[in-house]
Write the structure tokens for this entry.
Amino acid sequence: MFFLVMFIITSSPGLGHSLKTKTASDTRAPVWRIDLRSVGFTGLAPKQETWGLHFRPNPLCFADQQVLVATFITRENVTALARRDQPDDPLPLRLHGTFLDASTGKVQASREWPITRPRGGIVATGGGGFAVLVPAGLASYSPSRELLKDLKLSSEQQSHLWDIHSSPTGKSFLMEYHYPEASFQWVDANSLQPQPAWGESMPGVSISDSELTITRDTYIKSKGYISEVLVRSRDGPWRAICRVEPGMGEGCGIPQFVSNKVLALWLPHELKVASTDGEVLSAISLAEDDWIGRPLYPSANGERFAMTVWAHKGGSTLLDISYHRMLKRIVVYDIPSGHPIYTFEAKKRQSKDVSGVAVSPDGSLLAILTDGVLEVYQLPSSRDPSGSAVPTPK
């Protein structure tokens, strides 16, 4: 299938890598594992909302190379009334953050925050610092877990909040509000100072530390719908890095920043990696019964990302019965080499689902969370000229 009709900048010579078969899997045991039930995990899962808050942060993040943070939500029995100086005390929902040694899995500390709705998470902001994102606002913390600054949302903002987007480094956030129309507000993670909000339709938005990208279908009477991926700085004009004419393929795909200068363009069975100038760096093509999951999970250094691959089971379009999905594998992709370097085979690991995935800042560790059980795997450091994975020396 011809996928991209035109990229604005010519493709690199390395284009053409196509992952038609599974990469070599690694059957080594995890470096360590921990059942989060030992620190209070109860399995509480928020109900799917048909309208309203779509904010679903990754429950895993590496605060730095030494610290892995796992988050989960619990519902507590509350009998006390709110006090004037601590109005959040009687809230029954709690966001828990468990800080673990990334090398050993030893619990270093635990924190919890009262929340108004069953959504929340932690995003690494660089240098060991992190931000706590909840429906009521954002708060930044030092590597020693001390509160530095917070940004509280008004009741009106909370009721209109749709999503919070973060850059791959965690240094920038984009607050998305819906009602009566979409509006957006950029927030710097260090200062937590919101920039002036602007109203604009931005479907499929993703951000880096300084730019935004969206996907857009434009109808032209003589041609039909043209699919585009657009990129711009916060205050600059849009520029098209991909454009597909009608009848020439499925479209450009949905963009996601995997580093400040690199985008992944997602389609259900295909993924193209491109620079923000439109140069195609590499491509992945999967079988029709392999479905690429969203989002992707990049490392903070911008050199690797993990992607989930799923099987769709059951379902019937005729009977309006939805399918259920089953995890097939997790693939870690190396951007500089243009190759997958590690595959976690779900069937061999007896895993059918995954709730969280994270790659360490230097791309050497892969963390996977499934039903409250957290495992960390060592990743290969490079590839030899034959394409085989070279394990990281112990």
Observations:
- Residues 149 and 191 are 8 Å apart (CA to CA).
- The first helix runs from residue 155 to 160.
- The chain is about 0% helix and 45% strand.
